[in-house]
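Z., the sequence and structure:
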Amino acid sequence: MILTNTDNLPKKEITEILGLVKGSTIRAKHVGKDIVSGFRMLVGGEMKEYSQMLEEARSIALANMVTQGENLGADAIINIRFSTSAIMQGAAEILVYGTAVKIK
């Protein structure tokens, strides 16, 4: 499966647009790690617990989107975009979406 954030594929011809595909997940960190991140907020520095949480969430959301594309018979997903929103303190939703296409 080809994944790209561009709206075309160089040296490939899009033969059919299959439609919008998306994947999402809502992730939260363990309360103990939330406390550690709270201390970091006071002294500064990277909040590694949240960075890790968001990286995991992006991977899960992307995999969900790819599965949806595969179920449609897509060869590629183009014009991929990510969106993030806070659900509550310590929890975030990651949404990824794109256009599933057939290519030649």
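The chain has one domain: 2-103. The mean pLDDT is 85.

Let me know what you think.
H.
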